[in-house]
Description:
One of its GO terms (molecular function) is oxidoreductase activity, acting on the aldehyde or oxo group of donors, NAD or NADP as acceptor. By secondary structure, this protein is α/β, with parallel strands linked by helices. It is built from 15 helices and 21 strands.
Amino acid sequence: MTEIFKNLIGGEWAGGAKASRNINPSNTNDVVGEYTQGSVEDLNNAVAAAKAAFPAWSRTTPQERYEILKKASDEILARKEDLGRLLSREEGKTLPEGIGEATRAGQIFAFFAGECLRLAGEAIPSVRPGVGVEITREPVGIIGMITPWNFPIAIPGWKIAPALAYGNCVVIKPADLVPGSAWALVDIIQRAGLPKGVLNLVMGRGSVVGQALLEHKDVHAISFTGSVGTGRKVAEACIASNPMKKIQLEMGGKNPLVVLDDADLKIAVETAVNGAFFSTGQRCTASSRLIVTEGIHDRFVEAAIERMKGLVVDDALKSGTHIGPVVDQSQLDQNLKYVAIAKDEGAKLVWGGELLNRETPGFYMQPALLTETTNAMRISREEVFGPVANVIRAKNYDEALAIANDTEFGLAAGICTTSLKHATHFKRNSEAGMVMVNLPTAGVDYHVPFGGRKGSSYGPREQGAYAKEFYTTVKTAYTLA
Length: 481
Ligand SMILES: NC(=O)C1=CN([C@@H]2O[C@H](COP(=O)(O)OP(=O)(O)OC[C@H]3O[C@@H](n4cnc5c(N)ncnc54)[C@H](OP(=O)(O)O)[C@@H]3O)[C@@H](O)[C@H]2O)C=CC1
Ligand SMILES: O=C(O)CCC(=O)C(=O)O
């Protein structure tokens, strides 16, 4: 009989009446496990447990919280190989990518263990004589988290770690498609010595468990990562609730990579191929729009195709695989649909875009490169979220920058150039939250702020010390001396 992985509610592993099968996208005959499908009642119990745990947890010392986060970090890092294998098996990114993501989760917990000890306030003189002013940060309360399938351990990690570090209690609903890595992470943190009820996991559907989390009156804040459409629903529900909830939304991207005539061709191709296709292009930071100036355009396209020919698309767990499968049938259908739409609009498919057969039944697709595209086409404006990139020709740097900024998104942007002048100008004038020079738009550091502008993000930044803007609330206290 397959093991059923249960929800964690009030420190107890509790099974719901229903479970769903977590399927390996590299081999759909392989069932990773059965995971409980939570109900609204489970969610309500989890929030009640978090509420009961909050008074004591919010008063723990920084040392107590440090020790739990550090212990969790140690176990994640010690088990990065098996956590990475689980991640690759359920989500489809390659094993080195899976191990890399598990390592990143461990490093995030180590960073926020340190942040427990670094939280500080300010004492400043009042404008009135004999009065002192103190500015301190307090935990927000109960944080609801809704996470997507594409970074199944890092995203839960970079939400849970700061929440706990700053004294909050948590109820997390991971993506229904890929709950295994979040389950393993929660298990590790709980065993690191967390008091019962501080961290609760309720797996299940967004429309059921997620919606109930958004509507629960005892939840103070929601941190969400996922699509723009769902993000908007999250925002509306949080503003409609009484009291209103604090929100942090990380959503889509249509990230440009500008390649200038003076770029080092080898660096530009490697940067583009990595940013566009690694992790099967399933990154909100993926370089899906390649904006290339005229003098290098044809050489760039030719070299990119040559590089793509060498990419091995296969089972995520096989050694030598560069690109794993797409996460599921519906994402695969979406990728193929966008390739067809682009061709209908006049784009030329110069490499890939077809389904691939491998030893095992899986969602394999050859990464696709489209040329002769304009920034007005749907392929340039809508997030595909797969191994699909299009090349847009630009006359010069000024036109390339204008195209890069002409999007409703603003998560990441990159430029490949050997010109300090253009690199500096791009860093200052790109309308994105994260800007890269001669580096892929995807694959960021874990200790600095992550987030975007325009339609990509809403609310305070995630990660690094800036995470405290969301996970703490500021208090100003006045004292007559
Ligand atoms: N920017 C980013 O980092 C990401 C962007 N995306 C984009 O989103 C698209 C779809 O991916 P998907 O994961 O389905 O994204 P969704 O936005 O649909 O899902 C993200 C999370 O929100 C939950 N959710 C869905 N509906 C609701 C609701 N009504 N109330 C509360 N929670 C809800 C989902 O639950 P459930 O598990 O039931 O689906 C999941 O946990 C991708 O193709 C891509 O374009 C996806 C992942 C990450
Ligand atoms: O590019 C990265 O390192 C992170 C990407 C990410 O968070 C996402 O795709 O959701």
